[in-house]
């Protein structure tokens, strides 16, 4: 049975500036708190920058690539 593996990234922007990114595990995205943990870490890491900015940070999840394999075991 074919398995599709999707690579996704969480990106943090302040205004038009890309501040940080994190690679996500697509299977874990539906788990409550998974994305929130990354967002909290990014906000803590860039706290000073956020305090100086006139706008709050914005977060965006994007698909960076999709790969289909013959079985799930081959994608790991």
Protein architecture, described:
- The mean pLDDT is 89.
- The longest helix has 12 residues, at 34-45.
- The protein is of the alpha+beta class.
- Strand 1 (3-14) and strand 2 form a beta hairpin.
- The chain starts with a strand and ends in a 7-residue tail after the last strand.
- A three-stranded antiparallel sheet has the order 2-1-3, covered by helices on one side.
- 24% of the residues lie in helices and 43% in strands.
- It has helices spanning 34-45, 47-52, and strands at 3-14, 17-25, 58-69.
- The protein has one domain.
Key structural traits:
single chain, 76 residues, alpha+beta, three-stranded antiparallel sheet
- SS-based class: alpha+beta
Overall strand count: 3
Report how far the terminal alpha carbons are from each other: 15 Å
Q: Runs with pLDDT <50, length 5+? A: none
Major β-sheet profile: 3 strands, antiparallel
Strand ordering within the main sheet: 2-1-3
* Assembly classification: single chain
Order of helices and strands: EEHHE
Shape: elongated
Please tell me the overall pLDDT: 89
**How many distinct helices?**
2
Could you tell me the radius of gyration in angstroms? 15 Å
Work out the strand percent: 35-45%
Number of domains: 1
The helix fraction, in percent, is 10-25%
List the helices and strands and how they pair.
Blueprint: E1 3-14, E2 17-25, H1 34-45, H2 47-52, E3 58-69
